[in-house]
Amino acid sequence: MSGWSTHDIPGQSGRTAVVTGANSGLGYVTARELARKGARVVLACRSETRGREAVQLLRGDVPDAEVELRTLDLGDLASVREFAARLPYERLDLLVNNAGVMALPYGTTADGFETQFGVNHLGHFALTGLLMPALLAAQDRPAGARIVTVSSMVHLLGNIDPDDLNSERRYRRWLAYGRSKTANLLFTHELARRLAAAGAEVVAAAAHPGYAATNLQTAGPRAEGRRVAERLMALGNRVFAQPAEAGALPALHAATAPGIRPDSFTGPSLAMWRGAPAPSRRAPWTLDDRAGERLWAASEQLTGVSYDALKA
């Protein structure tokens, strides 16, 4: 796996991919490289304006790219349902759950969930469930179907609190972010188990970018007008972080490389920080079957999305 790069991505012709948060950063790079290899790529973006700009930029980078924009607000379950209902493809080969928010001041989604938990986990949980029939319809293709959920090394900050998923008792932005990223890994763990139990040839895997320079780091301070913190985050991006092109490699590897194992976790090889894709360390609580089952049940209840396609 050492030295794996975008040159090693297998051809993606004939495959359809959805990438959330594809208008910038890791999502844009992921969508661009999939399109470069021949995939039809749906850019699922909250902002139509930024999404259109991304489509224009991508077509400039990859003139023959087959890409399209569809709006998706993961912080609004009505938007998630509308996106899934309007997606015109009966088969979906790849879903990359990339979009997210990080260390924001306390807030809630349109449905009343704490923003980081609601967007990073619940929105993607609902989206994946609603797109599951299309993913299962693609499982008989040679490369199969995959679901890649982007977590973070910050998941090591803490396990979820099943009795306070929405951080209503006490809110600490970085802990809430870490817990939402733990939820991503628990979701992948339980999803992989359920896919296997259903005999489905769909791989659910996770990845993280290490420390990659994106707009996530500065979004929180900017939202609160904390200019010093915003500048410090921007400086950290320039000095310590790897570029988005490198940060996207673990997700691209999990999405396209042969032999990816269900419930695997791919990240940068050097101390989870930077470098070529490699198996990554993960906290033991992200492999807890009971915790995965409890989170799944709570997520179904909160979103109203049941994975009926896996129960048939």
Specify the overall morphology. Answer: globular
Poorly predicted parts: 228-240
Strand content: 5-15%
Largest sheet: 8 strands, mixed
Query: Would you tell me the structural class of the helices and strands?
Result: alpha/beta
Estimate percent helicity.
40-55%
Tally of separate helices: 10
What is the total tally of β strands?
8
Tell me the series of helices and strands, N- to C-terminal: EHEHEHEHEHEHHHHEEH
Mean pLDDT: 90
Which strands sit side by side, in order, in the main sheet? 3-2-1-4-5-6-7-8
Q: How far from one another are the termini?
A: 37 Å
The radius of gyration is 18 Å
Overview of this structure, please?
This protein is an alpha/beta fold and about 300 residues long. It contains ten helices and eight strands. It has helices at about 25-35, 50-60, 75-85, 115-135, 175-195, 215-225, 225-240, 245, 250-255, 290-305; strands at about 15-20, 40-45, 65-70, 95, 145-150, 200-205, 265-270, 275-280. The chain has an eight-stranded mixed beta sheet with strand order 3-2-1-4-5-6-7-8, with helices on both faces. Strand 1, helix 1 and strand 2 form a beta-alpha-beta unit. Helix 3 runs parallel beside helix 4 (about 115-135) and helix 4 packs parallel to helix 5. The protein is globular. The model is unreliable at about 230-240 (pLDDT under 50).
